[in-house]
Amino acid sequence: MAGNETKRPRRRRRRIHLSKLYTLTCTQSCFKQDHSRIGGPGYSRVVFCNEPDSPDADSSNYSDNYVRTTKYTLTTFLPKSLFEQFRRVANFYFLVTGILSFTPLAPYTASSAIVPLLFVIGATMVNNRRVKVHKGDGSFDSKEWKTLSVGDIVKVEKNEFFPADLVLLSSSYEDAICYVETMNLDGETNLKVKQGLEVTSSLREDFNFKGFEAFVKCEDPNANLYSFVGTMELKGAKYPLSPQQLLLRDSKLRNTDFIFGAVIFTGHDTKVIQNSTDPPSKRSMIEKKMDKIIYLMFFMVVLMSFIGSFIFGVTTRDDLMRRWYLRPDSSSIFFDPKRAHVAAIYHFLTAAMLYSYFIPISLYVSIEIVKVLQSIFINQDIHMYYQEADKPARARTSNLNEELGQVDTILSDKTGTLTCNSMEFIKCSVAGTAYGRGVTEVEMAMGRRKGSPLVFESNEDDVEYSKEPFVEESTVKGFNFRDERIMNGNWVTEPHADVIQKFFRLLAVCHTVIPEVDEETEKISYEAESPDEAAFVIAARELGFEFYNRTQTTISVRELDLVSGKRVERLYKVLNVLEFNSTRKRMSVIVEDEDGKLLLLCKGADNVMFERLSKNGREFEEETRDHVNEYADAGLRTLILAYRELDEKEYKVFSERISEAKSSVSADRESLIEQVTGKVEKDLILLGATAVEDKLQNGIIINLETPEIHSLEKTGEKDAIAKASKESVLLQIINGKAQLKYFGGGNSNAFALIIDGKSLAYALDDDVKHIFLELAVGCASVICCRSSPKQKALVTRLVKSGNGKTTLAIGDGANDVGMLQEADIGVGISGVEGMQAVMSSDIAIAQFRYLERLLLVHGHWCYRRISTMVCYFFYKNITFGFTLFLYEAYTTFSATPAYNDWFLSLYNVCFSSLPVIALGVFDQDVSARYCLKFPLLYQEGVQNVLFSWRRILGWMFNGFYSAVIIFFLCKTSLEPQAFNHQGKTPGREILGGTMYTCIVWVVNLQMALAISYFTLIQHIVIWGSILVWYLFITVYGELPAMISTGAYRVFVEALAPSLSYWVITLFVVVSTLLPYFVYSAVQMRFFPMYHGMIQWLRYEGQCNDPEYCDMVRQRSIRPTTVGFTARLEAKRRSVRRSESI
User: Fold this and answer.
1) Confidence band of 292 (pLDDT split at 50, 70, 90)
2) Do 876 and 966 touch, CB atoms closer than 8 A?
């Protein structure tokens, strides 16, 4: 808003006093028995305004205004970070083995075990605002927020944030109103209007507060942002306080020069902090399964340690002469035949440390690096950038990247998510006559389905429509209405011109819209709380009823006089505004016209408006109902318009009762207000109905080509819905299941389930919800109409817990937050309903159409990359770790490692980590174009075929047999003959160096075989890792023998000069990789997975062959009646039927 003010210096907002708009009426203080709650339980807070240091205030012991919103402080960063890392079971295991490495049990040096752990842990680990406060002498001084106390009087200026929860006393406006932006609290960008008490509205200067004293009693701190009950005692009188006087911490003052307020809640007592809860912890299915794999690896380590210790104990006890070099007659406890059982226990601990290399120490940090880089690529994807709003996609968390490729169920909001939330007035029904020739997107889709250019046929005989539907883009935003019968003033000749006049007059008067005037062009624009309201006011203006001015108590409209035929200005005095909410589902204003008539003008949903009509006001009800149903079928949003005249006596009674209800401080204040308004919003006279179109977002396609969609529940029957009961809902669900079983025995029928909010309330009961879920999952799609935010969250929870599959929720408004947080993945649309959905989401996108690329491209890639990455990690560690076990078995489990200490430590960190990171970031089995062209490829993730136990165990088996081949070929090749020309036989250092070289080559070339998409970076990291090994062994071997120990000059003097070393390396590497290569070739040629089929299609150049592509599409992993497959199959059946006919 501030930016807009800068760009439009000549645009001005009329300063109007909106007290009656937003508070229903200007009422005097009114207390009855409800006031007794103040001072009781839950209403015990006492605030001494302008006396924060008084003895009474000090005794209250309220919290200070210091708030810490960061997870860490300087003192808690280290312990909390360490806790976060070591609660991961693998890191804790390495910590234990690191500690044990300082004992004589360790098979390697302590430094070689601790340094890599410190590297991994370190890699993973890695408010003084001020406000003016009254000093007590009529002047204000600047203080830090954290020093504020309850009772302080503060002055907040334009575009500043409120430092605590304040009671509004006065503002730069005479009647103490101010505009507040609450985007930091609820994500909503539209401004809220607050108003102070009339008794304090005159305190508009600093010096007015010298000697000011007030006494506030109010509710105790709580998390309800929209309620506040209290009283202010000033000069011996008591005045009620409501949410209208409460300014919440971290909301922003807008379009108001300054306000004065009294601090009521500070620090952790403020409502925003009371609402701050930890976001739900979400972990991907792969990460959860990864924990199970690590537990399996622990079991294998324990099992191998137990086997080795048992054999070692038996050998130590029975064999005294074979291992004479260990001097069993004078050995320590580790080899003492007399204490073989103790030696076996010590050996078990030693082996557990040695075999710890089965667990990949760099797994977690590598995955976190990969996920962060994947998130950057998602954020930078130009194909998900919405240029019109300058909004790219934004991954707000990187924990769930791979989960994007496994989504089984999508739960979507409609308004603002599938649609633009930009309303256009397109049709209306007035006095039983339908007006408007515009064609909606739904009607055009239905016309295409029928194969007829005549999209819409009117019921009126005197209206002719051309064969080409009207699709011209509207030149006025919010108005796409075309009908010469009532445009350009022609409505005056219609049979019911008086009703038409009242209809559009109601649209011009019944609202809370604020007009803005451009001083250069004198054009009027409107700022409305909702796009519907703006569309109605614009439609009224375009049809001759122009709302152009609003004051505190009046609305001015330019309209065509029915008698004189001239354009006149009329003034309507606004007495009350009865606002719309989700419970009332209607909005009314009570106005007095220039003739002194009191009119109640009302608009609302059909299910609440028709029942409030009087007997004499139902003249056009039948026709209006038919039109409303037609509009609903065309995908339009409808409202019913009605009015009534009030006599002065009736209004006087209403005014008194609404004043009492508004002044109530009881917990049932809202219900009292509803009772009062309900008594006056009755006996209405029907005028007609409006129909506005919320256009679908670009890229959202209406597909009505499926002829066999069976609706299991018809929610269009209003009477049946009104009489819905638990028994009837249960019966319909049971019947639906039977229908599903009867018609859908084969997978040839696609079903849709439609249920409304009232029926859904019963369907979500504990004893019904599982039956409802069984019915829902058998359908291709489920539509929940008019469901509450809580119901959205409950349905999401039911689906997530019921089928155990990954759920994704997508929405754009505050009412979608519960659904987003409940789902496995929450996607927020950064639309026009504020940013609360985005702030509560895991991933934010600007348009619903980007969800396709997010899932089919990035989701598939991330799932495949992470799955392959984790499997490869365990493969390479088993390959390395099992050679240690085999060498131990070869040496009768003497706990002697086959490799140098630093060879052990740097394997995961330096010689095999970068290629797997490159795979996780860059690999693509199929290009983005083919991911979108063949969406059934996504089923690989839904069915989790790339991270199933079969695939995981297959990679593990690959590791075991690779280790066996490497060990036995190296040992056999080096054992019987001299290693070099001097006739020396190889020792542990040469055998270990040769095996280690083979392992480095094998695991890196295995990566090359697993990669589908080579880039320069992958070539660099694969061949670079091998090169780094040779550089390391050369440089490390040149260090003093005290440092390099057994690796001293072993490469330069022993390995490199020997031809057998190079021949053995080549032979072992080829022999080890050959089985995987043969298996992959056979699978790719004869048993291709779905991505393999697409790769073949691309390789053979058949991408543009429709028949071949269709064949590939139909070879789905599983039969399905959901989405593309269902639509395609239904269309194919329809074609076959038509051909047979």
Assistant:
1) confident
2) no
* Structure-token pair, residue 284: 């991907």
Task: Give me the mean pLDDT over the 882-904 stretch.
Answer: 87
Question: Do residues 253 and 240 touch, judged by C-beta distance below 8 A?
Answer: no
Q: Is 514 in contact with 482 (CB distance < 8 Å)?
A: no
Q: Give the DSSP letter string of 422-461.
A: EEEEEEEEETTEEE--B--HHHHHHHHHHT-S-----S-T
Rounded to an integer, the average pLDDT of 321-328 is 58
Residue 986 CB contacts under 8 Å (≥ 6 apart), including other chains: 974, 975, 979, 994
Mean residue pLDDT of the chain comes to: 79
Tokens describing residue 795: 């349905």
Catalytically annotated residue among 186, 206, 250, 413: 413
SS3 of residue 181 by DSSP: strand
* Spatial CB neighbours of 1042, under 8 Å, sequence gap ≥ 6: none
d(CA 221, CA 200): 24
Task: Please give the Cα distance from 879 to 962 (Å, whole number).
Answer: 6
Handedness of CA 1092, 1093, 1095, 1099 (dihedral sign): positive
Query: Which residues does 615 contact at the CB level (< 8 Å), separation at least 6?
Result: none
CB distance 225 to 275 below 8 Å: yes
Beta strands (DSSP E) in 174-333 are 177-181, 192-195, 214-218, 230-234, 237-241, 246-247, 252-254, 258-265
Mean pLDDT of all residues in 700-727: 44
With tokens 């009855």, the residue in question is: 32
Joined together, the tokens standing for residue 529 give 């709380």
Higher-pLDDT residue of 401 and 79 is 401
What element of type H or E holds 1090? helix 1090-1099
Strand order of the sheet with strand 214-218? 45-49, 214-218, 230-234, 237-241
Q: How far apart, in whole angstroms, are the C-alpha atoms of residue 999 and residue 883?
A: 9
Nearest-5° Cα angle at 1128, 1123 to 1132: 150
pLDDT for the residue 628: 93
Whether the per-residue pLDDT at 355 is higher than 60: the answer is yes
Residue 872, CA atoms < 13 Å, CB-side half-sphere: 29
* Confidence class for position 863, pLDDT limits 50, 70, 90: very high
Contacts of residue 235, defined as CB under 8 A and 6 or more positions apart, other chains included, come to none
What would the DSSP string read from start to end of 224-242? -TT---EEEEETTEEEEE-
257 secondary structure, DSSP code: S
Tokens of 646: 């009030």
Instruction: Using only the alpha carbons of the chain, give its radius of gyration.
Output: 38
Pairing between β-strand 177-181 and β-strand 252-254 as defined by DSSP bridges: antiparallel
Residues shown for the chain: 1141
Q: Are 751 and 710 in contact (CB under 8 A)?
A: yes
**Stretch among 144-158, 561-575, 633-647, 737-751 having the lowest mean pLDDT:** 737-751
22 close to 193: Cβ distance less than 8 angstroms: yes
| Catalytic residue status for 141 | no
Closest Cα to residue 806, out of 408, 412, 289?
408
Match 């947080």 to its residue by tokens. Answer: 821
Sign of CA dihedral 165, 169, 170, 174: positive
- Rounded to whole angstroms, the maximal C-alpha distance in the chain is 127
| Mean pLDDT of the 1030-1044 span | 91
